[in-house]
From TrEMBL:
It comes from Ureibacillus thermophilus. GO terms for molecular function: ligand-gated monoatomic ion channel activity. Residues 48-265 form the Ionotropic glutamate receptor C-terminal domain. One of its GO terms (cellular component) is membrane. The lineage of its organism: Bacteria, Bacillati, Bacillota, Bacilli, Bacillales. Residues 48-269 form the Solute-binding protein family 3/N-terminal domain. This is Basic amino acid ABC transporter substrate-binding protein.
């Protein structure tokens, strides 16, 4: 073989090696991409998850003096996303908007003291429960009302489409005009204070927190076994198993390491 031919052969081999190496590396990167999208996990994990809430629901979600959303739900979501190594943004969108926007995809999830109900489960999926609650009645200190039965014939205010609203319908009848529905629970309680309604029905921890924060409102709370136990869960669009599984994974971790109980002050069995 002449010198020229040897040089040519060498160059050919080199070129071949370069092509091989390039193939190898491109094969590598494409296969790693494939494995990412196959599990789907990475794409969601890299995304900023949009969380909707209605932040007039202390102690679960409310605005601090700087306009930041704070509270138990915020702390739990924060702990879950820290566990998962994921990012989120929480937005105060309003109560009914949480449901609309999770359904139409503007939001990825709802974290808003949302009770897991069979009716909601037709349209949404919920995580495992993270808090136990029930409804209570709130009346003025001098009210003659003593139990759920006494609400008959009285004007009762509630937060619209809340489980308190459902409870009022169950007690007074589905279309009873004495049920006054408001955008949020503080507005409903306000109507008891100003005398428009004789009672309000709302979530226990939130009503007690309201009384604590408004000692001059002269209100009292009535508990009644007529109200069933409720459980709060985080809500995603029906079928969003990918996010649901991640949320449950994070929730399970903070249940096991005691963080959840530390935040809520409650032991769930
Ligand atoms: N737990 C009740 C429900 O699911 C009321 C929740 C209201 N939450 C709120 N952030 N305003 O219907």
């Amino acid at each position: 073989m002449g010198k020229r031919n040897r040089v040519f052969l060498f160059m050919l081999l080199m070129a071949f090696a370069v092509v091989l190496a390039a193939c190898g590396s491109s094969e590598n990167s494409s296969s790693s991409k494939d494995s990412k999208s196959e599990s789907g996990e990475t794409s969601l994990k890299d995304k900023k998850i949009l969380v909707g809430t209605e932040a007039t629901f202390a102690p679960f979600e409310y605005m601090d003096d700087n306009g930041n959303i704070v509270g138990i739900d915020k702390d739990i979501v924060d702990a879950i996303f820290t566990e998962l190594g994921m990012e989120y943004e929480m937005r105060h969108v309003g109560w009914e908007a949480v449901f609309q926007q999770v359904q139409n995809g503007e939001l990825d999830m709802g974290a808003s003291g949302i009770t897991i109900t069979d009716e909601r489960k037709e349209t949404f999926d919920f995580t495992e429960p993270y808090f136990e609650a029930t409804q209570v009645i709130v009346v003025t200190e001098d009210s003659p009302i003593e139990s759920a039965k006494d609400l008959e014939g009285k004007k009762v205010s509630v937060q619209i489409n809340s489980t308190g609203h459902q409870a009022a319908k169950k007690l007074l009848g589905e279309t009873n005009p004495n049920i006054l529905a408001y955008e949020n629970l503080p507005l409903a309680i306000q109507e008891v204070i100003n005398g428009t309604a004789q009672a309000a029905i709302g979530d226990n921890a939130v009503v007690y927190e309201y009384l604590k924060n408004n000692p001059n409102a002269k209100l009292k709370v009535i508990e009644d076994d007529a109200f069933e136990k409720e459980y709060y869960g985080f809500m995603v669009k029906k079928g969003n198993k990918e996010l649901l599984d991640l949320l449950n994974e994070g929730l399970q971790k903070i249940k096991e390491n005691g963080k959840l109980a530390e935040i809520t002050g409650q032991e769930l069995e």
